Amino acid sequence: MLAIRDLSKTYANGVHALDHVTLDIPRGMFGLLGPNGAGKSSLMRTLATLQEADSGTATLDDGKGGRIDILRDKDAVRRQLGYLPQDFGVYPKVSALDLLEHFAVLKGLVDRRQRREVVDGLLQQVNLWDVRKRKLGGFSGGMRQRFGIAQALLGDPRLVIVDEPTAGLDPEERNRFLNLLAEIGENVAVILSTHIVEDVTDLCPSMAIMNKGKVLLTGRPADAIGALEQQVWRKQVEKADLERCLREFTVLSTRLVGGLPVIHVFSAERPEDGFEQVAPDLEDVYFQRLRQHAKAA
Ligand SMILES: Nc1ncnc2c1ncn2[C@@H]1O[C@H](COP(=O)(O)OP(=O)(O)OP(=O)(O)O)[C@@H](O)[C@H]1O
Question: Ligand 1 in contact with 33 (CB < 6 A)?
Answer without folding.
Answer: no
